[in-house]
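Question: I have long wanted to understand how a fold can be written as tokens. Here is the record:
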Amino acid sequence: MKAVVLVAGKGTRMEPLTSDCPKVMLQVANKPVLEHILDSAIESGIEGFVFITGYLEEQIKAHFGDGSKWGVSIEYVQQKEQLGTANAIGYAKGHVEGAFLVLNGDMLIGKKDLKALLSRKEEAVICVKEVENPSDFGVLETSDNKVIRIIEKPKNPPTNLANAGIYLFRESIFGFIDRTQPSVRKELEITDSIQMLIDNGAAVGYSPLEDSWIDIGYPWDLLKANEYLLKTLKGSCQGTVEPNVTIKGEVMIGKGSLIRSGAYIEGPAIIGENCDIGPNCYIRPSTALGNRVRIGNAVEVKNTIVMEGTHVGHLSYVGDSVIGRRCNFGAGTKVANLRHDGKNIKVMLKGRIIDSGRRKLGVIMGDDVHTGINTSINIGVVMVKGRSTLPGEVVKH
């Protein structure tokens, strides 16, 4: 069976991290989000993939190639205009036969749930997640274990079964996609296509997700995914560890990396290839350092993703943050990550103030940001690609 994976979008809510990188190629636990999805699908029994691409597709193709590295086949189909989920899935017509899965490239899902989905025999099956706030989602109305209606963000939800955006379809869905009309959002919605399938008398089932399901919609969701994935990390060392280094728990150290004397590292944590760590620094749990990262003397890093080529200069602190590629922290740069009143941290994204749902959140930093010495960065700050700060500057917004 094949899986159709939707990877065309830029991920505007993930900016500035997606300024030069597709959302699905952002790294979590030192691998692109899309690669984690690929791994789960392969472990569940999927042998072929159709990637529906768009934004910066060359980066996806360069990393995954024809799929032979993973022992599978990968085809690429470009979505010329992004006109909604039904439009995207429609591009797979002619590239799949019989039953096929549809996965979003920004949702982590466990192999157990995918295996359960593959065994279903209905004309279509929708994965669902029980949620506490169903009015914020597309909700399924059911009867006799079948879906009879899909309602978008209802005021009075008939169930707490939220549409998780993961589907099993058969080729019959393409006929209904062809008949789907634009919604009020002026998009071709796959839920409208499914509703036509139901109204035509087809059996459409649902499959509750029991394993992990993480929807990566905002930058801080990367931290949630990183924490989850690192829980199963098995420690190993392919680099060099000098005397008087303390390593506790599961820590993976990549090829060519040097851990200098006095470093204290608590797992789960992952350190990429050709990194230079220490001396006398503190790497705390749930930290992922990409390739060619430099962590200087007397630096503390906690529950943070640091992407490749970034240098965190001596006497700095960074916690609960996502740091882009090739950034440079001037000595003494400090990142705040906790409100004094302990309330959730709110973030300004694209002109909107959004509750992150997190009590601890530091900075979301785009690529190529350089901070001057003794820069202080407030909670929930978003720094755009290429920004720089003056020595001693306080970044409040």
In short: The helical segments are 33-44, 57-64, 85-90, 111-118, 173-179, 190-199, 221-230. The longest strand covers residues 161-169.
